[in-house]
Each structure stands twice: as structure tokens, then as C-alpha cells.
From TrEMBL:
Protein name: Phospholipase A2, group XIIA
Domain of life: Eukaryota
GO cellular component: extracellular region
Localization terms from the record: Secreted
InterPro entries recorded: PLA2_histidine (IPR033113), PLA2G12 (IPR010711), PLipase_A2_dom_sf (IPR036444)
UniProt entry tagged with the keyword Lipid metabolism: no
UniProt keyword annotations, A-Z: Secreted, Signal
PROSITE patterns: PA2_HIS (PS00118)
Amino acid sequence: MWLLPFLLALCICTPGWADSLEAPVPWLGRKIRGLREEMRKFDDYLVIAMDCLGGEDGICQFHCVSGATPQRRFGFRQPPANGCGSPAFGLHLDVRIPAMTRCCNHHDACYDSCGVNKAQCDAEFLQCLNHICSDIRQAIGLTSSLSACESGVQLVRQAVLRLGCKPYLDSQRAACSCPGEEKDEL
């Protein structure tokens, strides 16, 4: 019973196999090509889901499929600063706090630097945000914590930790190239 699905999968994965069926059984060839295309789409969705969850191993790291060290992509230019938010999720937050926007822009630039570690970018981002709270506290003369500011920092931190893998990987794919690999293979 397990042999039939195995043979079908083998045939679907063999390039040109469905084309050879076109003459004797046209509808079967079309169905198999359609199934193969749907499986490719499903695989693309799984890759996106894995990116959102932290990559294949649960740790969000960019690496070349071949194991080679990623190299800065020839001709790559960092995209213009876009403030806080994530184009990957269609989210843009106009926080109207210049210091926070600077932190977000620096964080984006960090993600766009080929070979940089996501955890390092995120740690620098959190430190930048924490400095904002500290500066506000000093400016208004408080000695105690500024809980609203610190709660906001923690909220942003959690969003970056939970949802930042896909934007990081997308940025690394754009900024890096891998020897012997095409951009869409990464």
C-alpha cells in the first residue's frame, strides 16, 4: 500500500515525467503537473512559516545551503530607512518619537548587513530603546523607573524576538550571496 504513494511522489519529482504522458493520457499529465505545482507552492509556504518561527532549527540564522560563508552581494545597497515596522508583515508604526525611530532605523541597517548575527542586532536595538527610557527619566528628574516607557520597550522587544526572524532572513537574502547559489535558492 505504501508503494503507490512512493511511486507517485517519485514520478512527480522526476523532471519531464509528466510531459511524457501528454500524448497517450493528456488529462493525467495535466493533473500531475498541477499537483507538482501545488506541492511547490506548499513548500514555499512551509519555508515562510519556518522563517517566521525561527528558521529550520528554531534559531534564526542565515546560512548558505552549500555551507559556504555568505558574501556581501555585489551591487547591494541598503534600502532607505523606514522607521519602525516591518514591510515583511505590511506593518509600519509611526511612533513620532525621533529617538525610537533612530533605534528602529539602526536595527534595520543592522539586519541589512550581510553576515551579521540577528541576536546581536536585537541586543543593540534593545539597548538603544532602554537608553530612551533612561534619557527620559533623567530629563524629567525621576529617580524611579518609568514603567510606561519600560513596558513599551518590553513590548517592542517581544515583537522583535517573536516576529523578527522573517524580516531578518529576508534582509540577509537581499544583502548576501552564496558562492554557487542563485538568489532564490537561499
